[in-house]
Amino acid sequence: MSTPPNYEVPTEMRDFAEKSVEQARKAFDSFIGAARRTADTVQGSAEVARTNASDVSSRGFEYAEQNVNAAFDLAQKLVRSRDVQEAMQHQAEFVRSQFAAIQAQAKEFSGIAQSAMQQGAERAKTAMQQSAEETRKAMEQGQDAVRQTTQNAQDAADRSTH
To answer: What is the Cα–Cα distance from 17 to 80, expressed in whole angstroms?
Structure first.
């Protein structure tokens, strides 16, 4: 197995690439700030739903920010690499760390989603139970009213025959 040729990246090229990475990072930071402000404005109306949406949104933005910052860090390392071998080492480290980060993020995101669903289900269950109880009471009152009306009609019919 032969080693790859050692191509040196010119300093001017690395400087240009580094400036480009910084400009892209600044643009991303502006975008993420605007996206966060927009997400804050669009939050839902129900308290539990709003809290869960906020948690999910916040964590989603944090994950995106972490992942994009890791990519920018990799880009900076790559443009500063002296040779292809060093660049490949940075890439391999990035893949390993991002795989672990994404696994942890997915696990946490799953927990948040599960909690949100459980809270939503509990709220729905409580609302259904209250609705069923109110319906039962309304039916009982309706039955009482029908009985009373029937009794009143019977009483009136008895009085009219006497």
So the answer is: 9
